[in-house]
Amino acid sequence: MSYLRPSNIDVAKHAWAILKLLVTRLRAAWPGVKIIFRGDSGFCRWKMLRWCERHGVDYIVGLAKNSRLLALAAEAMQSAAAQFESTQQKQRHFGWLDYAAGTWDRARRVIAKAEHSAQGANPRFIVTSLAGDAQAIYDEVYCARGEIENRIKKSSSSGSLPTARAARACSPARQPPYSLPPPRWANQFRLLLSSAAYVLMETIRRVGLCGTELARAQVPTIRLKVLKLGTVILRNTRRIRLLFSSAYPYQELFGAMLRRLSSA
User: Fold this and answer.
1) pLDDT tier, 240 (very low <50, low <70, confident <90, very high otherwise)
2) Are residues 216 and 255 in the same domain?
3) Percent of the chain beyond pLDDT 70?
4) For residue 93, what is the enclosing H or E element?
5) What letter would DSSP give residue 212?
6) What average pLDDT is seen over the chain?
7) Total domain count for the chain?
8) Using CA atoms in the order 18, 22, 28, 30, what is the torsion angle rounded to 10 degrees?
């Protein structure tokens, strides 16, 4: 779901409503699917966590550090610092805490990471409903969100927003009375294009390029090697033919990708 909002409001505003819509839609398609809500500390709101608990949605969300959390993790942090001093190698200790902010309805389980390196202490905290090994949950589930963010950024449009042409296309004379201002429409449209590009590229990588040398390639690499190509296109009522240069080095890979996508 792509939703553009002003930058001067709470980062979690409307996130609860959007989460509910997504969960409802996903369960309508896959009734037994396991859903995990994952986000950074900007989305750590106890009402959202309570909604997840009531509706069978697991969550793993960043938690901004404060004096109380640092006090609870002090022993692990001191141990990590002492081991770093003796080994001069980065130390990472993980553990579970029970914590409730003053505004929360109840205490929840928190994973504390006590890290110490040459740059000093680097404590991190996440609140989660998941059970298991603290380090595995942190490294394999929570930190994986960084990879998703990188993929989205690589697929997003670049340049200033909105374009002058897009703003003119959304001039007040062409809008119904209830519409948003022209720049907002232009930005929203480009956000939708970026989202469509992300879905397209992820499908090409996950389905078309699975098991190939480009299975984990970044978006610019895929764009350069299998999309941004010079071809002669011949089309009739029954088929479309693409005539590549005989020197194109990825002919077999391109053909395999098309066959996989067409049969998916």
Assistant:
1) confident
2) yes
3) 83
4) strand 91-99
5) S
6) 84
7) 2
8) -160
